[in-house]
Every structure is written in structure tokens, then in C-alpha cells.
Design brief:
Largest sheet: 9 strands, mixed
Radius of gyration: 26 Å
Structural class: alpha/beta
Strand content: 15-25%
CATH topology of the largest domain: Rossmann fold
Distance between the termini: 69 Å
Strand order of the largest sheet: 6-5-7-8-4-9-10-11-12
Shape: elongated
Number of strands: 20
CATH class of the largest domain: Alpha Beta
């Protein structure tokens, strides 16, 4: 680091520089260099550095290979089986999405865990645990923000799991900047990283997110941890998804599905049942499809509504689905299936609050729109899968066999797509599928 009075730290990559620049020389991001005072101590002594002897890799201890279950089958699934000894994980999400609720439940489930909060007092955590129906005596808690006191406590108590809520409230007195600043987040993250490796204790860091949805603080924080997870969902809906975006000890294609109830987050072991409403399937405009999120297939319900427009510019509204993709499907329906909707408002909704980016539901959405417009009902046990091309053809989506197995496992009929969308609509309308 520079020895001048000030230096400049990049909020994206965490590199520091001796002078300001409009563009970071490290990551090439614009307007990310922030000025900080150089607080490096002048009393630092140079140390003699001795060479070390390289060691040959040997088989690790079975105790260290054994993963620690979080007590939640869905959280374990997102972590590819649980927490690894000595690992450090970062959990982010919007305010009020359920991060602290999930962590309190994990602290209750893992015996010998230590919950450290810089945001809430012991009384507040006790009230939360009581509301969730948890036993207070099973949760060890301290309210502390000083990383050196926390480090001494961990070294003395040697807990089985440590939860830090949140990394943005932690502070290292060696750096007088305010908690949550780039320097504090980086330095505190390094302290916890060393603690996890030194004592072989898994540590979960809860992180705030910016308005863009990224973890607040320097990007280097995500580089230094072993696992990065995000809690996704909408605060007014009960569906929550824990999605892993980085994982050194497993796949990033796994997700955990939860339902937020009054007594906490509950694992959705059968998510298909959560998204299906048998009553709505008996009305025009509803259809079933199956999506793949990560490596996980589950059945969802799509709803469509067409209404005569009172405007010269009909509305195209989509909730949980790409609006541009909806416009493309409407053009295909008009040109290839001869269903004109130029004078109708079209509304699409993915039931359950999901945001779907899987093009495998194209055919189901097209059928739901045609069903609403023509006032006919799609068979309620029919699961429609297929991607629509501009020529009106239907293509099999990725992981087609995985989707088919899930549909058949739940007792539904997997619609084997004909070659064109017009043929599919004709067969479904007649019920000859």
C-alpha cells in the first residue's frame, strides 16, 4: 500500500492505488476509486521471513471431510450437502427477505454454534427466536462488533459454527474508518477468513446488498470467501429461493426452496405442489409447465388473460416473465397460429411469485393466451413444455428427460410436442393429447 497520506480504493475489485483515476487500472470499472486516509502504523517492524518446506498432499481427516448439516434440507441442498469445516460462506439478500430468520434457525439447529450480531441486542434475538418457536437455551449469542474481541471469543470457546450478522457492522480498531466502509469490510473479512482456516470452524457472514442487488462492500469480499449465496424473493410473497453463485466445494447449479411462514422459513421438499392451484386450472387461461432451475425440475402454473383494449396501444403486461419474450410469442401466435390479439390487452402471470427465464415454458404461455382468448380450458393434468421458434415450430428444451421424469413422478401427463404451435393448440383444444 502507498505510504502517502491518502490512497484510493476500488469499490469493485478492492485494489488500492496512490492516485485517483476515473477508471480503475485493475478491473477497468469507471468511477469506483474512493479516497481514504492512510492509517498504516509507523511503528511496524520488519520481520525476518524464513522459508518453509513444501508438504506433499495427503488424504484429509475423515472428520474434516464430513459436512455439517444446517438443519434445513433445502439450505443443505444449496450448499451441496452442508457446510465444510474451515469454510467461510457469504449470505446476501434484500432487507426483510429472511436472512436473519434463516440464520437464527440454523444457529438453533446446529448444536454448539455461536450467533454474533452487530445489529440486534440479546433481547431482540430472543424475541425473534420465541416468535419462531425455538428453544432459547439452544442458541449461544453475543452482541459484538469488535473483530478482535470476536476472534478471542472464537479461539476460547471453539464453537462448531459461527454466524456473523452482519459483516457490514463489524469493525477493526486498527482502521479508524466507519463500519461498513470498504476498508472495514475488507479487513474484517480477512480476519474471519484466517479464523475459519486456523480453527477449522465454518463461518457464515450475512451481507447487506446494494440497490443493484450486489453484496455491499468491495468485490474482493466475494473472492476471499468459499461460498456466496443469495436469498431471493419478494417481501409480500412467501416464496424464497436460496441461490448459490459461487461454491468451491460443490455445484452452483443447486438451489434451496423455502416458504416464509409466521414461524420462520420452511423447506419446500415438493415445490410443484406449492405452485399448483387445482381450482384455477379449471378456468380458461391457465396451463401447467415444468421448468429447470439449477438442476431442479418443478411444475409451475402460468396464467393468461386477454381483454378488449380501450386504447389504441394494447397493454402487454408480464409478471415473472420477460415482457420482450411475450411480445415475440404474440407475434408468433398471430402469424403462425392465426390468432390476432392486436386489439386486446394481454396479461401474463407466473403463479407463486417466481421469475422464470426458462424458454421451455413458451408453448404453455402461448396455450394459456389462446385458451383465454378462445374461452376454452386446457386439460388440468396436462403439462405443456416446448420452446417456440419464429417459424412457429416447437423445439424440445434443455434437460427434456429430467422434466419428463418429474411430470410422470407426480402423476401428470407430459405433452409430447408436435412440430408446430398451431398443431399443438388444435390438439389441446380438442383434448386429443
Amino acid at each position: 500500500m502507498a505510504t502517502k497520506d491518502v490512497y484510493y480504493l476500488c469499490s469493485e475489485c478492492g485494489n488500492d492505488f496512490v492516485k485517483w483515476s476515473g477508471r480503475c487500472p485493475g478491473c477497468r470499472a469507471w468511477n469506483t476509486l474512493v479516497e481514504y486516509k492512510n492509517e498504516a502504523s509507523s511503528t511496524k517492524k520488519t520481520r525476518d521471513h524464513k522459508a518453509v518446506i513444501p508438504q506433499v498432499l495427503t488424504q484429509s481427516s475423515p472428520e474434516l471431510e464430513k459436512r455439517i448439516s444446517t438443519g434445513s434440507s433445502e439450505f443443505d441442498r444449496a450448499l451441496s450437502g452442508g457446510l465444510v469445516a474451515g469454510s467461510i460462506a457469504l449470505l446476501g439478500g434484500d432487507p426483510g427477505i429472511g436472512k436473519s430468520t434463516l440464520m437464527v434457525q440454523v444457529a438453533h439447529s446446529v448444536s454448539g454454534s455461536l450467533y454474533i450480531s452487530g445489529e440486534e441486542s440479546e433481547h431482540q434475538i430472543a424475541l425473534r427466536a420465541k416468535r419462531l418457536g425455538l428453544k432459547l437455551e439452544r442458541i449461544s449469542f453475543i452482541a459484538q462488533t469488535d473483530v478482535h474481541i470476536i476472534a478471542a471469543t472464537i479461539a476460547t470457546q471453539k464453537p462448531r459454527l459461527v454466524i456473523i450478522d452482519s459483516i457490514q457492522t463489524m469493525q477493526d480498531d486498527a482502521f479508524p474508518s466507519t463500519p461498513g466502509s470498504l476498508v472495514q469490510v475488507r479487513e474484517c473479512g480477512l480476519v474471519f477468513q484466517r479464523l475459519a482456516k486456523q480453527h477449522n470452524i465454518p463461518i457464515i457472514l450475512v451481507g447487506h446488498v446494494t440497490k443493484e442487488g450486489n453484496i455491499a462492500g468491495p468485490k474482493i469480499l466475494e473472492h476471499m470467501v468459499d461460498t456466496v449465496c443469495y436469498v431471493e424473493g419478494k417481501s409480500m410473497q412467501e416464496m424464497r429461493i436460496v441461490r448459490t453463485t459461487k461454491h468451491r466445494f460443490g455445484s452452483t447449479n443447486e438451489i434451496g426452496l423455502f416458504a416464509m411462514k409466521n414461524n420462520g422459513l420452511h423447506s419446500l421438499t415438493n415445490p410443484s405442489a406449492h405452485f399448483i392451484n387445482d381450482e384455477s386450472l379449471q378456468t380458461p387461461g391457465s396451463a401447467l409447465s415444468v421448468i429447470i432451475d439449477g438442476n431442479r425440475p418443478f411444475i409451475i402454473e402460468v396464467q393468461a388473460l386477454t381483454a378488449k383494449s380501450v386504447s389504441s396501444y394494447p397493454k402487454r403486461t408480464a409478471s415473472g416473465y420477460d415482457a420482450k419474450r411475450l411480445e415475440l410469442l404474440l407475434a408468433i401466435l398471430e402469424q403462425r397460429a392465426h390468432i390476432s390479439l392486436s386489439e386486446y390487452d394481454v396479461y401474463i402471470n407466473i403463479v407463486g411469485g417466481l421469475v422464470v427465464k426458462d424458454n421451455g415454458i413458451d408453448c404453455a404461455i402461448a396455450c394459456a393466451i389462446a385458451s383465454s382468448h378462445g374461452k376454452w380450458v386446457v386439460p388440468e393434468k396436462l403439462c405443456i413444455v416446448g420452446e417456440c421458434g419464429l417459424a412457429g415450430e416447437i423445439r424440445s428444451p434443455l434437460n427434456n428427460e429430467l422434466r419428463k421424469n418429474e411430470v410422470e413422478r407426480l402423476g401428470y401427463t407430459y405433452f409430447t410436442q408436435p412440430k408446430t404451435l398451431s398443431d399443438a393448440l388444435r390438439l389441446i383444444k380438442k383434448g386429443t393429447v
